[in-house]
Amino acid sequence: MIILDENQHRVASHKEGPALVLAGAGAGKTASIIGRTLELVESGVPSSRILLLTFSRKAAREMRERAMMAFGEGGATIQASTFHAFCGRIFRQYESVIRPPLIKPQAQGNIAHTGTDNTAPSQKIQEHQGDRVTQLDEGGQSHIAMEAIRRQYKDPKEAELALKEMDWRKWLSAYDRLRSEGYTAQAQGAAQMTTDFINAWWRVEFTEAQKDPMAGDLYQFAVWYETEKRLAHVIDFGDLINLPFDFLRANPPAMAKLAHRYDQIIIDEAQDMDAAQYQGIQRLARAMPTPNLMLVGDDDQSIYGFRGSSPSVLQYFADIFRPEIYRLERNYRSTREIVQRASQHVAHNRHRIPKEPFSERETEESIFAYRHETDMDVLYWITRRLLQAHADGAPWSSFAVLYRSRRFGPQISALLVRYRIPFVIYGGLSFFEYLEVKFAGAYARLATNPRDSAALRDLAPLLPGVGDRYMDLLHAALMENPTFGFVQAAEACASNRFRTAHQSILKVQKTLRHLLQSNPETWGKTCWEYENSGIRVYLEKADAKEYADDKSALIASLKRRQDNLGFFDQMITDVIHEADAEEAKHPVLLIAGMFVTDAQKKDEDGDRVVLATVHACKGLEFDEVHIPGFVQPLMPWPIDDDRDITTLPPDDQQRIYAQREEERRISYVALTRAKHRLFLHVPGRFVTAANLMLNGAIRAPYLNELGLTAVPAPFQAARMDTAVQATANVIPFRPKPVEEDCRGG
Ligand SMILES: Nc1ncnc2c1ncn2[C@@H]1O[C@H](COP(=O)(O)OP(=O)(O)OP(=O)(O)O)[C@@H](O)[C@H]1O
């Protein structure tokens, strides 16, 4: 158990009134919060009267578990919950009064919008007492937004055209931003909303000159969208926070009742609060007999600007509440070098509360900045490093590979799968979960084992007529006849009813024949180009639907799919070339073998390497961290174009500064996850699918700020050499005799 140091102890024993704990990275915020809860309980405060709020379920769970350890068996439990869970409870408690008036389904067709009308016609809106509302996820929000726009047009063709022309995703994003500040179109009215929308829109993306012409449209969209939610009886994330807090504000007795339930409120990662959350909590604290509100946070780690949070919330709280301020500056996590350089880096931000973090952990050298020819070389290098370090005794869970964009996850995961390194991905897909790759792999599996009904099931979306019923039948036929392949099984269950499915199965057989006659090193490409495989046709259709309103996104998605298959082929080539003569005789078996992935990525708590976006790794720490693209345009993200902005209007300058500072904070969060070793990789060019979104020259501006220069990576790892293969548990592709790969029975 952690013994609190003097400063942490002061936090734990804070007496009464508002408090602000300004803590640097790795300064033991969690330990201090647990310590404080413990002291409160020991001083007689029932744990149920302590409200502990965090931002992620993971953080809430960790807090509960650590408290449980501290309290010991049979001790008190603390109620740590996320903001959304807390607001959700209030929502459910008062649902019939909180939820917005729902609209009767039969009135839907009559709703007309006039753009300047800020309420839907009241006579058409009726309360549905007894109805429950459900909550939208992100995909659901987009769906409702599109439906809201469609409803404005009588002619469906006109509606689709309008959707294509409108930039509604950005409207939705601006709307969300406004919601995070507590606004609703219905309540604010056209004039107020329009002005605020202009600003919200502008903060999201646009410059001074561009914003005026869009204002009216944005307001109109908000009214449509809000009405649509009421028609569909749904609420979104913004509603889940705003509706309960709005209700409490308008109902002092309910607010007082809630406020009297708690003696203490503690907010972890307080820098991540958006304005609506902050205002809600501030009001709740004011309604308490004593505002016992403690915010614990680090403005340098505020990285959710895109969701409406701002690093200035801590300063704002300090100005308004005049709280007792505690500083935790000793970093217990990282070496002195990491702490010093990372602090020097983030100090380039102008708008921050100055801090003096320090560490007493000494190591000789803990940051390594390496130059590589391409990003592919980086991936191989990291893989090789992990294999070697693990062979030397380091557990897999001591490593993390952190990236700015989700696009990097699949690339690195592909190599880890190949070298049997167990991993877990936070935020994003593994390479083998991309549909195009998954389908290509399923064909390879079926080619090597014609009885593999799981592979056939994976292909089912491509196969007209092949549904669950048919697959169950086919599977049963396979089970009953151990000598059958999938084609014989299909013959056995042929019937009029499943004629289409049967045709599809014959096409699969044809595709496999074609694939087996083609070059195995272009398996992915062949799968894409050969029409009978159904992959291209299916994905083109799916993407056309998904990006119906955005042609360039559609083109980019299809290109990315092909690039993924190109990357897949590159890996196949490597696998074949590295195989011994016997293995190389069965290249398709080698391809199928690459898909032994499941066991490698389940079970979050096991011994596995963490692959994560910076946003998904907040609060975590690892012995060794790799950042595969420590270069602009990845870190910092392309938004920071580094051009001279001094001639721009002041508002635009401010916006760009804010974005630049947020980028630097993201980098800071990534760097400060490392305890002992930090590897910063600088590729000279991008050759993987990640290159799609990266245009512009590659530079490494943050290395200068860290006071580092990249040196050539100490060993060439473009391809695994035999020595490494010998230490690695490389997938043992020992081919089993296969009679005739794709006979299908
Ligand atoms: N008093 C202490 N003595 C020894 N180790 C400590 C102490 N306080 C914290 N630590 C250790 O320091 C590390 C960082 O702590 P913690 O994760 O709570 O930091 P944090 O402030 O939440 O960091 P971040 O904001 O960067 O996520 C943990 O490994 C923790 O066990």
Describe the structure.
With 745 residues, the protein is an alpha/beta fold. The chain has 4 domains: 6-91 and 243-330, 3-Layer(aba) Sandwich (Rossmann fold); 134-232; 367-428 and 603-728, Rossmann fold, CATH 3.40.50; 431-600, Orthogonal Bundle (PCRA, domain 4). It has 33 helices and 15 strands. β2, α3 (57-71) and β3 form a beta-alpha-beta unit. The termini are far apart. The structure holds adenosine-5'-triphosphate. Residues 2-5, 8, 23, 25-31, 298, 301, 332-333, 619, 621, 672 line the site of adenosine-5'-triphosphate. Residues 336-619 form the UvrD-like helicase C-terminal domain.
Précis, in short:
This protein is α/β, with parallel strands linked by helices and about 750 residues long. It is globular.
Features:
single chain, 745 residues, alpha/beta, Rossmann fold, 4 domains, six-stranded parallel beta sheet, 33 helices, 10% strand, binds adenosine-5'-triphosphate
Q: Please provide the count of β strands.
A: 15
N→C terminal distance? 62 Å
Q: Biggest β-sheet, characterized?
A: 7 strands, parallel
Main sheet: strand order: 11-12-10-13-14-9-15
CATH homologous superfamily annotation of the largest domain:
P-loop containing nucleotide triphosphate hydrolases
Radius of gyration from the alpha-carbon trace, in angstroms: 29 Å
How many discrete domains? 4
Give the CATH class of the largest domain. Answer: Alpha Beta
Could you say which overall geometry the principal axes of the C-alpha atoms support?
Answer: globular
Q: What small molecules does the structure contain?
A: adenosine-5'-triphosphate
Helical element count?
Answer: 33
Structural class: alpha/beta
Mean pLDDT: 81
Low-confidence stretches: 106-130, 597-602, 718-745
Query: Can you tell me the CATH topology of the largest domain?
Result: Rossmann fold
- Looking at the overall shape, the CATH architecture of the largest domain is 3-Layer(aba) Sandwich
Organism: Acidithiobacillus ferrooxidans (strain ATCC 23270 / DSM 14882 / CIP 104768 / NCIMB 8455)
Domain UvrD-like helicase ATP-binding: 2-335
GO biological process, one term: recombinational repair
GO molecular function: 3'-5' DNA helicase activity; ATP binding; ATP hydrolysis activity; DNA binding
